[in-house]
Write a structure and sequence with these properties.
Methane Monooxygenase Hydroxylase, Chain G, domain 1; 5-stranded mixed beta sheet
Length: about 270
């Protein structure tokens, strides 16, 4: 007897198997990875987090004799040819391992991407830094939830009441460990995202402070000149300097001296 079958939802309904009511309801819109334990069987759903634009979701029904993989899309069939185990639970285990087989490479790709973003940020040559970082953060959050759900599924298989359905508990334990390591990798990357975001905000604050410093210096330099201009703009009759033939040049000289003194002061204080 074949240990694994890929069938559609309608085909699964016709089998009239026990404990299928909740599973059939979940098959209408699969959003989570979960498993439910019953005395006669195990039922659940798997929603594979896509690393590309081709999501994969399917239902599972497992008893001692057979594993049903339930999907109307047929995408799960491409994995069935890679499954060579002969026991139903071993087939499910092998399938779950295939689904996460290259995930560590994908996480390494995200880590490398963030390193490149950090290098570009140091050069001030990254235009859409915050937008891309936000997309990575959202992606990592989804992956964290995904691995938590798969880990809960694998741990549920190791419950005492489910031992009747599994042939090799140590292999399921290895899967739990592998998923735990993937979770740790995601947590590490999420911490990197937080650090990059804080660094980005610090760089933006530095730029704003630099601009404000420049504006303050310019304003401070021209403030005394504005005072002089306002002073001699008053319409008093008796202002001796107004009738002095060198008054204009004296005022210009005073302004230049004030500017030079202010620049010397700012340089000593290392404002620029």
């Amino acid at each position: 007897m074949e240990s694994t079958k890929v069938i559609s939802v309608d085909e699964f309904k016709k089998l009239n198997l026990p404990r299928t009511k909740e599973l059939l309801h979940s098959l209408g819109s699969i959003r989570y990875c979960k498993i439910e334990s019953y005395r006669e069987c195990l039922t659940g759903t798997v929603c594979v987090l896509p690393k590309d634009k081709n999501p994969l979701s399917f239902g599972i029904y497992l008893n001692k004799e057979i594993l049903y993989l339930i999907s109307d899309t047929g995408d799960i069939r491409k994995y069935k040819s890679k499954l060579d185990e002969d026991k139903p639970d071993a087939v499910l285990l092998q399938l779950l391992e295939l689904l996460i087989d290259d995930d560590i490479l994908y996480l390494e790709h995200l880590n490398k991407k963030m390193e490149e973003m950090e290098d570009e940020l140091l050069k001030d040559s990254y235009d859409n830094f915050f937008e891309e970082l936000t997309q990575i953060r959202k992606r990592l959050s989804r992956f964290h939830a995904y691995y938590e759900q798969l880990s809960a599924m694998a741990s549920e298989m190791l419950n005492k009441q489910n031992m009747q359905f599994i042939s090799d508990a140590s292999s399921w334990g290895n899967l739990v460990g592998r998923l735990s390591r993937l979770e740790s990798s995601v947590m590490y990357l999420r911490e990197n995202v937080v650090q990059l975001r804080e660094y980005y905000h610090a760089r933006q604050a530095d730029k704003q402070n630099s601009v404000m410093t420049t504006l303050t210096i310019v304003t401070t330099i021209f403030l005394p000149l504005s005072l002089l201009a306002g002073w001699y703009g008053m319409n008093f009759v008796n202002m001796p300097e107004l009738r002095n033939e060198n008054g204009y040049f004296i005022l210009i000289g005073v302004a230049i001296v004030i500017i030079i003194l202010e620049i010397i002061y700012f340089k000593k204080k290392k404002y620029f």
